[in-house]
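Fold this: Flavodoxin-like domain-containing protein
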Amino acid sequence: MAKAIVIYYSRTGNTKEMAQIIAKAMNEADLPTECKSVSDVKAEDVFGYDAIVIGSPTYYGQMAAPVKQLIDDLVGRHGQLDGKVGAAFTSA
């Protein structure tokens, strides 16, 4: 069975709330989904999921540094992400 993860960074709680709403909707659509802070996720953790959703607040037109670091860590492993569904969201 497919499974998904919603990964987020949230300083004020707004992006966390959005992440939880997204994860809840995915679970209600019968897609088992975990919701985790980026501080609790390593790049190698995402390979066990079929869908990866990443959320970050926008600061001066940029994503939060911890989210950028995770994405940078994933770039070198792009072949391992083949066939996975990806999505992103932001708060500003």
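Helices lie at 14-28, 65-75. The two ends are 34 Å apart (CA to CA).
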